[in-house]
Amino acid sequence: MTMSHLAPLPFGFEDLAPFVEKWARPTETGRNAIRWSASAEEFADFYATFMPRLASALERLDGVALDAMNEGEKTLFLLTAAFAEAAPHHELYGGSAEVPFSFAARRFVPAHGDTPSSAKAMR
User: Fold this and answer.
1) CA 119 from chain center: how many Å?
2) Which pLDDT value is given to residue 100?
3) What backbone torsions phi and psi does residue 121 show, to the nearest 5 degrees?
4) What is d(CA 63, CA 48) in angstroms, rounded to the nearest whole number?
5) DSSP label at 105?
6) Pick from 115, 121, 123: nearest CA to 30
7) Is 27 left (phi over 0), alpha (psi -120 to 50) or beta?
8) Coil, strand or helix: which one is 79?
């Protein structure tokens, strides 16, 4: 599944564009699949680039209602959601796609997994 149909990121976030194709997914199930297949190098690269931009991304999205986001903001929202889920794998788990000393993450199946994270905004 490619995310090439997503709108370009808002002006000022172009440096994050190389991560949209891989990481920006509209559902938790989609983000999980990408996270479970990511390598330590991919977690590290995403983290090193996105972490310094996190405050700017949150500032841009703060106060914008999900159903009021423009297309670029929706893409930034999806990338930010992916970062929130991927960051612990770099910070805490040594780049592993699994969570050490835990049950297999694939056993956790979110009931809302195929529902877009911002369902109303993703229409």
Assistant:
1) 15
2) 77
3) -75, -25
4) 26
5) G
6) 115
7) beta
8) helix
> Is residue 5 helix, strand or coil?
coil
Length of the chain: 123
- Name the phi and psi angles at 27, rounded to 5: -125, 160
Global pTM reads: 0.83
d(CA 110, CA 112): 5
List, for residues 47-84, the tens digit of each pLDDT value: 999 999 999 999 999 999 988 999 999 999 999 999 99
- Helix (H) / strand (E) element for 90: namely helix 71-91
Taking residue 11's Cβ as centre, other Cβ atoms within 10 Å add up to 7
- C-alpha 123/C-alpha 103 separation (Å) is 34
Structure tokens at 72: 């670029």
User: 104 exposed, middle or buried (CB, 10 Å; 0-12, 13-18, 19+)?
Assistant: exposed
Mean confidence (pLDDT) of the chain: 87
- What is the rounded distance in angstroms from the CA atom of residue 37 to the CA atom of residue 39? 7
